[in-house]
Design brief:
It is built from 16 helices and 14 strands. By secondary structure, it is an alpha/beta fold. The protein has one domain: Glycosidases (TIM Barrel), CATH 3.20.20. The strands form 4 sheets. The chain has an 8-stranded parallel barrel, surrounded by 4 helices. It has a two-stranded parallel ribbon with strand order 6-8. Bound molecules: 6-O-phosphono-beta-D-galactopyranose. The site of 6-O-phosphono-beta-D-galactopyranose has 15 residues, from loops. 6-O-phosphono-beta-D-galactopyranose (BGP) binds next to loops.
Length: about 500
């Protein structure tokens, strides 16, 4: 348990809250004029918790099956937790906890049923306008992600995902519509969720199914798609600054934090190399150009990325106002992992750290690693930071009396609050806010389970679609309420 070294203190106006994503909460996959996304086509499969990367295998055959699947088939994102119909109740619960900020994402396919449509889907616009009105009614600031792993299916079937350059203009049209229609209610925006992720799971972040690129170097396809996403991000940032001058727009990265498994120099070097892999694209969004180490990497891999005249200038002009990130756990890295115990993490596998506890999904909890990460990221980027995902996925039990006792979640939250406080008060980190991931139970991204529960609010739904969707307050609901009410100072349990 991390113990704070300086007295607990958070800045006035610190944005305490919670985070969700459209594809993991909304459901109503074919309602309200929404077009299909790739997420609606991802079936439930019992996960291999010893190797996360298996969860991301997906082929055109899987897609063909999804397109003819009937209502009895198990596609968890199609129902999620039905937030599309429960959002008023859910936002009222978040307000009861005292949220200052709620991170959600907008589903592109609700705004444009087909990304090529000349006009937006007014039902989708009306839905999000009402979501934002509900938030503001309670004094909750929306923090909105434009793209959170749910590219429109048309990008996959009628284009080549983000590999197609035309997608940049389609995304710019979508972003412009969001800024024009929601800009009066939204002050905080993010472009792409975990912008580094396409290199780990190309289907959900890039709309890229490998077997649709026969005879091509798929790694080169991903780097090209990433370039298009960088140009799109820069265009969105410029648009936001033009249309919503009082707003802030940031990038969002996966903070994967690796420790050298031993003090062997080769383990230290291997760890540094692994960490640079996470910074590749955030560096572009913050500094406005390709870092030399990424150019060297592409050269070494023989990867050629085509760039149009004007792209470099766009990247320079479209740098972000703040850096947000997800943080859950840490792993270890060794130059040679032969014979070492491995541990799964957030879309990665690492060497198991013998000094850290593991969740039931094998993720290794490390609040000290959050402070370490805050210092590293602030020193690197010198921009305000925002923790937009942090949380513990666990198996919770709904007791016969409707209570859920989750002291493990309170303990996780407590020590991460202590770590944040020290990063601010000892290390001088400029931290804007903290939105707990999965403030309400939702469908896991990597395993598509409901049983991996993150929420302060329990949702009666299982991995197979059985349940009432009824909401219940867990014990941690009152705890987080106390943390927020005291601005992070009354947190002893
Ligand atoms: C991050 C995603 C979130 C969320 C989180 C938890 O990578 O941005 O969408 O899914 O991981 O991971 P999981 O849902 O796999 O437990």
């Amino acid at each position: 348990m991390y113990q704070n070294q300086a007295p607990l203190a958070f800045p006035d106006g610190f944005l305490w809250g919670g985070a969700t994503a459209a594809n993991q909460v909304e459901g109503a996959w074919n309602e309200g004029g929404k077009g299909m996304t790739i997420q609606d086509c991802l079936p439930f499969r019992e996960p291999d918790l010893n190797d996360y990367t298996k969860s991301f295998a997906y082929t055109s055959k899987d897609l063909e099956e999804a397109l003819v699947a009937g209502p009895e088939a198990n596609y968890p994102k199609r129902r999620a937790i039905d937030a599309y119909h429960h959002y008023k109740e859910d936002i009222a619960l978040f307000a009861e906890m005292g949220f200052k900020c709620l991170r959600i994402s907008i589903c592109w396919s609700r705004i444009y049923t087909d990304p090529r449509d000349p006009e937006p889907n007014e039902e989708g616009i009306a839905f999000y306008e009402d979501v934002f009105r509900e938030c503001r009614k309670y004094g909750i600031e929306p923090l909105v992600t434009l793209s959170h792993y749910d590219p429109p299916l048309a990008l996959v079937t009628d284009f080549q995902g983000w590999y197609s350059r035309e997608v940049i203009d389609l995304f710019e049209k979508y972003a412009r519509t969001c800024f024009e229609r929601f800009g009066s209610m939204v002050k905080y925006w993010l472009t792409f969720n975990e912008v580094d992720a396409m290199l780990r799971h190309a289907v959900t972040s890039g709309g890229l199914i490998e077997d649709r690129f026969p005879g091509m170097n798929f790694e080169e396809v991903v780097y090209q798609a990433m370039h298009h996403q960088m140009v799109a991000s820069a265009k969105a940032v410029k648009l936001c600054h033009e249309l919503c001058p009082d707003a802030m727009i940031g990038c969002m990265m996966t903070r994967l934090c690796f420790y050298p498994y031993t003090c062997k120099p080769e383990d230290n070097l291997a760890t540094q190399q692994r960490m640079r892999g996470i910074y590749r694209y955030v560096d572009i969004q913050v500094f406005g150009e390709y870092p030399r180490y990424l150019l060297k990497e592409m050269e070494r891999k023989g990867v050629h990325v085509h760039m149009e005249p004007g792209d470099a200038e766009l990247l320079r002009e479209g740098t972000v106002d703040f850096v947000s990130f997800s943080y859950y756990m840490t792993s270890c890295m060794a130059a040679d992992t032969t014979g070492l115990d491995m541990a799964p993490g957030n879309t990665v596998n690492g060497v198991k750290n013998p000094y850290l506890p593991s969740s039931e999904w094998g993720w290794q909890t490390d609040a000290s690693g959050l402070r370490f990460s805050l210092v590293e990221l602030y020193d690197r980027f010198r921009k305000p930071l925002f923790i937009v995902e942090n949380g513990l996925g666990a198996r919770d039990t709904l007791e016969p009396d409707g209570t859920i006792h989750d002291p493990y979640r309170e303990a996780y939250l407590e020590e991460h609050v202590r770590a944040m406080s020290d990063a601010i008060n000892i290390d001088g980190v400029d931290l804007m806010g903290y939105t707990w991931w999965g403030c309400i139970d939702l469908v896991s991204e990597s395993t598509r389970q409901m049983s991996k529960r993150y929420g302060f609010v329990y949702v009666d739904m299982d991995d197979y679609g059985n349940g009432t969707q009824k909401r219940y307050k867990k014990d941690s609901f009152a705890y987080y309420q106390r943390v927020i009410a005291s601005n992070g100072t009354d947190i002893d349990r």
